């Protein structure tokens, strides 16, 4: 099974890019972030025509997450538990085959310190609590999406420039580490422990051309899936397409 994650940065504005990539790579499951569209504006028919069922949790102008699947998909949850007043559409969870798939768009948190950074860390705590519960069930689980975290200096071009950024502050990196230490496997780093791999390139200063990127889109696998991991990669070339997202699609392949 090939599972991908892709922050599309506007599902309708980037729909031709998304459909082109789906046709080219044909993943079995795709998690999308930053739909930037309310539920009624999600391009369901175009996704169906591409061969995918879909569930989505939209929001006007901001955020929004979706899971696409070639097989039957059963929604388990929309929204992260722990804050009934949270209006951000940042989490959706489904069962596809025998795998629980959580698709997330973690808050950016800038400027830091400040209220947005506090919200990021609080959201992280809610994610850790929910993730711990998922592990306790002993089922195969994938938690994937845009985490807005560079876990180590290897994951960021010129890390000295990012020390005060919410994506790289010590509190953020510690939150990610304590999440992983629950028993999750960072799929990319398991297969490529020392390689420079980026998943995001800013639109400014020719970041993509200079390979000046960040690794902020991650796959965390439960122990039941760790041993099934066969491959993982970034479709970096998609970032070079016209009118593309500032993120690259990232994917893993799991064996039976």
From TrEMBL:
It comes from the Bacteria. Residues 4-247 form the Endonuclease/exonuclease/phosphatase domain. Gene3D superfamilies: Endonuclease/exonuclease/phosphatase. GO terms for molecular function: double-stranded DNA 3'-5' DNA exonuclease activity. Pfam families: Exo_endo_phos (PF03372). It is an enzyme of class 3 (hydrolase). Its cofactor is Mg(2+). InterPro entries: AP_endonuc_1, AP_endonuclease_F1_BS, Endo/exonu/phosph_ase_sf, Endo/exonuclease/phosphatase, ExoIII-like. Its EC number is 3.1.11.2. Keywords: Hydrolase, Magnesium, Metal-binding. CDD domains: ExoIII-like_AP-endo. Belongs to the DNA repair enzymes AP/ExoA family. This is Exodeoxyribonuclease III. The lineage of its organism: Bacteria, Pseudomonadati, Bacteroidota, Sphingobacteriia, Sphingobacteriales.
């Amino acid at each position: 099974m090939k599972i991908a994650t892709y922050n599309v940065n506007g599902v309708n504005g980037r729909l031709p890019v998304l459909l082109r990539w789906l046709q080219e790579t044909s993943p079995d499951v795709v998690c999308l972030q930053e739909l930037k569209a309310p539920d009624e504006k999600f391009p369901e028919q175009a996704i169906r025509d591409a061969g995918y069922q879909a569930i989505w949790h939209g929001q006007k102008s901001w955020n929004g997450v979706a899971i696409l699947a070639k097989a039957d998909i059963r929604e388990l949850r929309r929204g992260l538990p722990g804050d009934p007043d949270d209006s951000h559409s940042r989490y959706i969870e489904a069962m596809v085959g025998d795998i629980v798939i959580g698709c997330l768009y973690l808050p950016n948190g800038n400027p830091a310190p400040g209220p947005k950074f506090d919200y990021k860390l609080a959201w992280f705590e809610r994610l850790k609590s929910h993730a711990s519960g998922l592990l306790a069930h002993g089922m195969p689980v994938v938690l994937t999406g845009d985490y807005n975290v560079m876990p180590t200096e290897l994951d960021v071009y010129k890390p000295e420039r990012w020390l005060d950024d919410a994506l790289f502050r010590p509190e953020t990196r510690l939150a990610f580490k304590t999440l992983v230490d629950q028993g999750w496997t960072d799929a990319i780093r398991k297969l490529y422990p020392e390689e420079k791999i980026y998943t995001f390139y800013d639109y400014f200063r020719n970041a993509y051309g200079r390979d000046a990127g960040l690794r902020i889109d991650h796959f965390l696998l439960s122990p039941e899936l760790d041993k099934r991991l066969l491959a993982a990669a970034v479709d970096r070339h998609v970032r070079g397409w016209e009118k593309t997202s500032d993120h690259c699609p990232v994917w893993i392949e799991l064996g039976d």
